[in-house]
Amino acid sequence: MDTAERLDLVTQYAEEVIEEDELRELLEAEDDPSVYIGYAPTGEMHIGHFTTIRKLADFLQADLDVTVLVADLHAHLDDEKSPFDLLDARTEYYQEAIEGMVEAAGANPDDISFVRGMDYQLDEEYSLELYRMAAETTLARSQRAASEVVRESESPNLGGVIYPLMQSLDVKSLDADIAYGGIDQRGIYMLSREMLPEHGHDKPVCLFAPLLAGLTGDKMSSSKDASKVNLTDDPDTVESKIDDAYCPMGEVEDNGVLEYVRYLVFPVLDEWDDSFVVERPEQYGGDLVYERYEELEADFESEELHPADLKSATGSYISEVIDPVRKRLTSQSDLLAKAYPESHE
RNA sequence: CCGCCCUUAGCUCAGACUGGUAGAGCAGUCGACUGUAGAUCGACUUGCCCCCCGUUCAAAUCGGGGAGGGCGGACCA
């Protein structure tokens, strides 16, 4: 596989690359550059996470060395989103869910290295470096970096300003060439690019995935159940959530349903070598078949494809895509019960 | 260590002075209208009023104690 092909795989479906030239050089210079993404094990994982995880399959295919950090300490530092004594259980659940999603994306979870934050973040060397970073960073700088990630509050905790420093240091500790994450992570990684050269590590190339719009017409929110599909939602629930979604006819911008189709369904169908079939009643013109997302979007924009027909097709595809994850998680209900005792008694 | 303020629906808060077992907005649910959803209209739901003790016929409301949170001061030989 040549560099152009690898570059294409690595950057497809990405929201932004900082900087593309650096990435090209990296791919040219290294056979297997390292990329990492971190997840703080807080709330239950949902389909939004799938967007970022799905791409790990592309990375593997492009011969990248992929590391997933389960950032347990971060989950607690961020306004105690996860109570300290649930970190073990949630870490275990996250790894299982992530492996399930990798598998659903058509890759082998064994090809990915999983690392747990506290396994190295308490080391002497790491701690000292962190204190040095703290000494050279203003509160305002750190807060600005983390503002899209850390929960905002009238009385912010110190944890929230340590958070982006640690995340920057993680890039170094994991020896990552590429820092990958949702576009909400941009602020933190721009801080990393500023700081890391002073701390003995190259500026990471940053690769950001889009954050999918929610199903209710605003941002997807993990606390708003109707705005997202959960990995453990049964097919009926998935279909009714899609069916209830905000989806104006012909409107392509910020349309959650279309984004699901674009970033989740089509990439996976591509993997399966399948096309997207819309079953449509004869009175409205009969079935439609799409090979590429762009064709579907064009039809939707021209109002040839009605939202109701799009929804019913999307609902069943999404359900099918998450099915392996759903099975994996529901067959281990004790994992969820331990990680989220309040919602899974 | 000292002082002051806050804690009521999922969320933001009103009600406390002048005791009579709770309200608004948002959110949510359900209908109507749309070949979807939204918008709009109509209806509906929601509560250990932070905890304990006391006063009283009666306490979200008054008194005492406690917990959690916030703000400020003092200390800086």
TrEMBL record:
Q: What reaction gets catalysed by this protein?
A: tRNA(Tyr) + L-tyrosine + ATP = L-tyrosyl-tRNA(Tyr) + AMP + diphosphate + H(+)
Oligomer status and interactors = Homodimer.
Q: What organism is listed for this UniProt entry?
A: Halovenus rubra
MF terms in GO: ATP binding; tyrosine-tRNA ligase activity
- Gene Ontology cellular component annotations, sorted alphabetically: cytoplasm
How is this protein named in the record? Tyrosine--tRNA ligase
Coiled coil feature spans: none
Q: Where in the cell is it found?
A: Cytoplasm
